């Protein structure tokens, strides 16, 4: 519900002239915002208190679009995940941090605030107090940021299946773009190295210096590719540790013991949206179990069979958990959004035992689902590899064809699918279950 200046409730509150209506309207705008609007709404809300050239939110809740930005185009179009990760490492807690940081290619003054529950960070570039009381203004900005970060968590938790599919498509495309840039620049630098090593160049000192710089650039470029890949996948052990951190306050204050059975350390890394959904589902199940009388212990266990994340949550109550309860139904919908399954066994006198299976890959559908595209067998193979986030070189190697042949098939796919980019092709493939 939005609070607007002409709301009928306001007319009935004329005896309260000190109500901060602009702030209340800003809070309502942030609360109502979609994930795509939330950075712009937050910037509008904070400008009366702290001016800025740009506002950036960096959050792991949205695996496909971890950055949410508003403000100067020359900043929001160039800021990188690597820069934001470096800044987040400097900000140790939720205390506002003022300083200078490399953002969008150059050093800038920034205000940064972390939100510990999700490890998200708010970055305001070129901050300038605009409130008559700067300390009070900063407190308001901190409050608005906490509200926004929590709202992002809620929005992602309640996201429809289409958003989750789009998120995975965007993640795969980000990996692909980075991989192709790595190939391009690696080739360029390797040619540069070969030229500088040539005996025809007699300036040994210049050759040695430039060789060292180019070699260093190659290492940094490979490191950037690895970081991008890591940002869309999360080791299962780390994902489980984050779940333990989320539930730690409950174990401390509820008086109910929560037992954690660790997943294998060598389990397959989880796609970001699977890891996030798994934590949300387990949190919801544990809370639902704790609301029952006569529960003293809840056990949660994760495992991975290479294709699925397997979750088991069990309590020692009297078996009063209702499988038709709205909270359980909401969690079941969340599981189904990722093509998973939730099974619940309630045993009177023995408690509830809930099993959840979340596939780590999107399911492949029968070929007849895409028969209308009139794809040749090889074109369909190339599309499946594209949907998995693979770059041209890897596709060529896997299929035993040249990169030029892969590019030829990709052009044909664009024409037959009526799309204009790899991103659109990947999203369309994912909507039809191809992976």
TrEMBL record:
What keywords tag this UniProt record? Answer: DNA-binding, Transcription, Transcription regulation
- Check the record and name the InterPro entries matching this protein: HATPase_C_sf (IPR036890), Sig_transdc_resp-reg_C-effctor (IPR016032), Tscrpt_reg_LuxR_C (IPR000792), WH-like_DNA-bd_sf (IPR036388)
Q: Which residues form the signal peptide?
A: none
Query: What's the domain of life for this entry?
Result: Bacteria
Say yes or no: keyword Nuclease present: no
Extract the coiled-coil ranges from the record.
none
Sample GO molecular function, one term: DNA binding
Q: Which Pfam families match?
A: GerE
What are the GO BP annotations of this UniProt entry? regulation of DNA-templated transcription
Name by which UniProt lists this protein: Response regulator transcription factor family protein
